[in-house]
Design brief:
The chain has 59 residues and is an all-alpha fold. The protein contains one helix and no strands. It has a domain at 1-25.
Length: 59
């Protein structure tokens, strides 16, 4: 719910409120949510890059 409010607030602040649908912005998550703990050593996912989180990233 907060993600929706944040996105709609950003659109409003950028004067794009016309892009906000009547039922609100869709905020479906993509894939499973598997957060890692903040920190180093075994808590840090070594070698993980933001592009690795998407299936269609180019190499």
């Amino acid at each position: 719910m907060m993600r929706r409010f944040e996105l709609q607030g950003i659109l409003w602040a950028l004067a794009h409120e016309d892009l906000i649908p009547t039922n609100g912005v869709k905020t479906n998550t993509v894939g499973d949510y598997e957060p890692n703990n903040s920190g180093f050593e075994d808590k840090y996912k070594k070698g993980l890059k933001p592009a690795d989180l998407f299936d269609d990233h180019a190499e």
